[in-house]
Amino acid sequence: MVAFGKKLRQNQIEEWQRYYINYKLLKKKVNRYSQQIQVGAENQQNVLKDFSIMLDNQIERIVMFMLEQKGLLASRLSILGEQHGAVLEQSDESKISELREAYRAVGQDLLRLLFFVEINAMGLRKILKKFDKRFGHRFTDYYVKTRANHPYSQLRQVFKHVGVGAVVGAISRHLADLQDQEGNHISIYDQPALSHPDPVIDSIKAAVNRLSNSTNFLEFLGKHAFTFQDESPTPSEDHLAEQRYHFMSLLLNLVNTFLYMVNTYIIVPTADNYSRHLGAAATVCGVIIGSMAVAQVFSSVYFSAWSNRSYLRPLVFSSVVLLIGNILYALAYDLNSIPVLLIGRLFCGLGSARAVNRRYISDCVPLKLRLKASAGFVSASALGMACGPALACLFQTNFKIYKLTFNQDTLPGWVMALSWLVYLLWLWISFREPPRENNKLVPQESYTGLPVQDAVEIDFTQPLLLNSEAKFQDNNVDQEFDDGEENYDESHKPVTSIVSAYRLLTPSVKVQLFVYFMLKYAMEILVAESSVVTGHYFIWSTTSVAVFLACLGLTVLPVNVIVGNYISNMFEERQVLLASEIMVLIGILLSFQVLIPYTVPQYVSAALVTFVSAEVLEGVNLSLLSRVISSRLSRGTYNGGLLSTEAGTLARVIADGTISLSGYLGESRLLNATLVPSLFICLSSIIATCFTYNSLY
């Protein structure tokens, strides 16, 4: 890959060249400002003011040209519309074909305009990021806050697609009319299913989605999965993913995700019972549940590193370890041993291959299928979370085979051991190890060899930055490329340690990771102590607890449907983020047992508010995190997915430890004792979000 400045020159549409962002000038200005500040010739305040004016002028030129081009497209459509009725009345097939091609030509020109807007938006993001990096100043926060929130904002025009929908609608409607051979004049607005798909319309929709980051259910779930990919995968990278893709392997990857989530939650309704049978306090269930999360803190790292070399071997290892762990968990009952029980759960945590699951989707699924695969990852997790407790309520039996006991405490272990054995055999037979290129991507070459406008006309759904090369070879083209910060090897290479990864985290990213920690902590407190709390206050049976937890798990997908299809299109993600945090806080406050008798309606309603709000918060939080995190954390062992997994796992460990420690106060005080830390952490996250709110754009 090469520096962005060279890419910009390579991909400019020649006749529009003077309207592009002047990235070279802006970059030289940043370098000059840096030198002037170092020698004391300029102060930072004047630099910020001067650079802001320069950016304003650049954006205004882009926006004015964009509006002018949209006007020309609208004029062409208006002229074609006047011809439309007459051509249909004549029923001349040749004229209909000419008119159809004329509409498609307008669509192709709209694609060129969208390409123009997106590459300028990319340049703007790059130069803002470079300014922040050079001066150690959150100039992006200031600039976005003052420009994007202004009623006459031109910055928003760069990132939005105002007016494009009207052009696309006109082209779609007229193309559908022209392709209608039966005289059926039903409008596509009345029956969208009758509209005739056209490649140019599909390409425009793909371009608009990429430009605007518009959110639908699949995109929301895909971001929820937090699978990383660089800003614009090159054609060679996507071709490599095509070669690696194997449907059965992807299915096995998702089944692993599902089974692991079942394994995590299947013991929750009976963990307190199990600990009592082994002579421990009911609140030891926190340690039993949390021991799996403790091991996952470490397993996430080595599985992430292992996935650099293989996918099959870590999945096989995961299945074997989980098989052993579940057998030990079940045997602990007859051995009457808490240590064996905990070792079994530790083994289960050591088999957590979620880092491999995410990595496989990022590396081995083509771009066109990656969103659906990511949504499948989240759906499998949600389904496993609901099925785990639901299965537990089916195990209300008690019998022995030889000297092995099978009851509600041991059956979760035996059933999961059998499940992992069947999965291991299926994995060994059906999984196909993706081909490797010596752990490196194929060097990038020109995709088409055509000018960018011709390449766009061929297929706009291809990555925007065409004609990229493996290395920048001409060292004398421009002095600007001597700065290695824009070079791929410097600014995009993966980090090599957790410390390096932490240093790349901006305040906004750190706050989002803390928000993720908070929501996982609140959810774990709610779920892990549910059997003890409901048993103490309401004398619920294991079946009642299992049904309650299963119902909570079943809310995940419907909530994501509502947020993905409606809420995220009505409000900014940062608004949804803050509102969700406040709702989690309200749920925690409603959960406290005060003076009045604690009732089932109070507990269930508070739990529902907390859990649903946390689910909404998780999706929006990871979506924002995927946009603001450094591109260097998009691949490698210490990637953003690993950081978020570690933050969530650490939250679960601390939450489960809190439950066990609070157990020393007695079951009557357990609820309030565990809710106090949740309340404090939630308040802290809300305050931190308010401080970084304007940078979440």
UniProtKB/TrEMBL annotation:
This is INNER MEMBRANE TRANSPORT PROTEIN YAJR. It is a multi-pass membrane protein. The chain crosses the membrane at residues 250-268, 280-303, 315-332, 338-356, 377-399, 411-431, 513-539, 545-564, 576-596, 670-694. InterPro entries: MFS (IPR011701), MFS_Domain-Containing_Protein (IPR051068), MFS_trans_sf (IPR036259), SPX_dom (IPR004331), SPXM_SPX_plant (IPR045264). Residues 2-145 form the SPX domain. Pfam families: MFS_1, SPX. The lineage of its organism: Eukaryota, Viridiplantae, Streptophyta, Embryophyta, Tracheophyta. Belongs to the major facilitator superfamily. One of its GO terms (molecular function) is transmembrane transporter activity. One of its GO terms (cellular component) is membrane. It is found in: Membrane. Keywords: Membrane, Transmembrane, Transmembrane helix.
